[in-house]
Amino acid sequence: MKVSSIRFRLIVWFASLLSVVVLAFGAYTYERSWHYQEQVLSRFLANRARLVEALVLNIPSHGEPWMVQQIAERFSPESNDRFVRIMRDGVKIYGSGPPNDHSFEPAEVPLLDFSVSTPVVRRQSLPTDSDLLIASRKVEIDSHWYTIEVGSSLASSYRVLHGLGWTLACGLPVVVGLAILGGMIILKRALLPVERLMTSAQEITLHQLDRRLPVPQSGDEIAALATALNQMIGRLDEAFRNSSRFTSDASHELRTPLTIIRGELEALSLRSDVPEEVGESIGNLLEETERLVRIVEGLFALARLDSGESQARRERFDLSQLAETTAEQICMLAEEKRIVLRCETAGKTEIDGDRARIKQVIVNLLDNAIKYTPPEGHVIVSVGVRDGLAFLEVNDSGSGIPDSAIPYIFERFYRADEVHSREVDGAGLGLSIVHSICTAHGGSVSVRNTEPSGCCFTVLLPCTS
Q1: How much is the pLDDT for 427?
Q2: Residues of the chain with pLDDT > 70: what percent?
């Protein structure tokens, strides 16, 4: 999964937000649990303090020994891990013993300030790192002040909180992990319509603009996106059809007047009474007319390719044989520049396609290689099968192509080197035609520079053998 993908970012945002929410909820639960336990224990101790106070109020009638006996029988502070202490005028008259759980030492509990007269619940820290919660009451009997303290260790509450903390610490990552996993599954299912749109969009090629993307019946933003994309494809289809129609019509209409102009110029050039200066001008006009004719023919060929002409003329043929025959036919151009043209094949290589158009690919690539290869150079055509695809490679020993021009070399009217290109006849449409033919046949064409000099054009086509 790419870090910059929307899926990764959504998962990160979801995980971060969920972690913050879960951590906040855990902290809130931990704090509220502590306050709840403290409040419950405070109410319990305050209630016990009132019960002990009721016993203290009976001292005048029954005596202090009776009170001590009643506290031991009714409350059993040692057995219940409680703390009870009763002071009379600042002097202790009763104090409970050490609790059974040894969570604190009663003797370490400091005395309550005698000046405090109102009921109070306080937390008391002891030197032994123990904490007590103590409820205190003060009552006057026969001119004597009795102070009642009932307490309990917070160790059990700490243990409960410690267990809760471990539960949260161990459970929250699991909960977050499961939530993230569930979020990923939900996100994947939620993005399935988008993936279907992507797959359908990738299947729509230049010759399939009449196809449309599937619109989910969900009525949500994805459905609106699919509808908008279909409308855009419809506009592109209409614009492309208009452009192709204009190119085809313009090319077709220009062919007749150009043919007439060329014929008239050729007739003038053959006349003996034409002055030499005029003859040179006529020759220049003929050259430019020929160039214009080739441009028009190239545009006409591209328009027919864009309209899907090559799809209607399919037949099975041997690419190796076609390459050899074409190389033999064009070898005259190579011999004029003293260039060695060689064809290397690896046996029969059958493909399905328009034989005339594939031959045009070979002719254009060989013509291009011969044009840009200096005298005494070489051009090698190779045909074979590689990774289940038929390949045709044209290697030359020319000057190569600038690296900055390689991404644009198959664009229409693009010339890699304007100054150098003016010296070589051409309109900048040959490689565009090659690219269009290969694309129409479900193949591809690419180019790379070779060492020590030259370049290599590689055509890949579906193989039937």
Answers
A1: 58
A2: 87
First to last CA, the chain: 38
**DSSP letters along 249-286, please?**
HHHHHHHHHHHHHHHHHHHHHH-TTS-HHHHHHHHHHH
Q: In the prediction, which pLDDT does 425 show?
A: 55
CA separation for the pair 348, 259 (Å, rounded):
41
Are the CB atoms for 123 and 52 separated by under 8 Å? no
- Percentage of the chain beyond pLDDT 90 is 14
- CATH number given to 221-306: 1.10.287.130
Question: Can you give the pLDDT at residue 293?
Answer: 74
- Tell me how crowded residue 41 is: count the other CB atoms within 10 A of its CB: 19
Q: Is the pLDDT of residue 185 over 80?
A: yes
Task: Tell me whether strands 340-345 and 378-386 are parallel, antiparallel or unpaired.
Answer: parallel
Going edge to edge, which strands form the sheet with 131-141?
91-95, 82-88, 144-153, 131-141, 120-125
Helix axes 430-440, 355-371, angle to 10 degrees: 150
pLDDT at site 120: 81
The topology (CATH level 3) of 314-462 is Heat Shock Protein 90 (3.30.565)
Q: For residue 456, is pLDDT > 90?
A: yes
Distance (Å, whole) CA 307 – CA 208: 10
Long-range contact set of residues 178-185: C-beta below 8 Å, sequence gap at least 24: 179/18, 180/11, 180/14, 180/15, 180/18, 183/11, 183/14, 183/15, 183/18, 184/11
For domain 6-159, give the CATH number.
3.30.450.20
Look at residues 237, 216, 217, 228 and name the one whose alpha carbon lies nearest to residue 307: 237
Chain centroid offset of residue 464 CA: 37
> What are the DSSP E strand ranges found in 346-439?
350-353, 378-386, 389-396
SS3 137: strand
What is the average per-residue pLDDT within 68-97?
88
Q: Residue 394 pLDDT more than 60?
A: yes
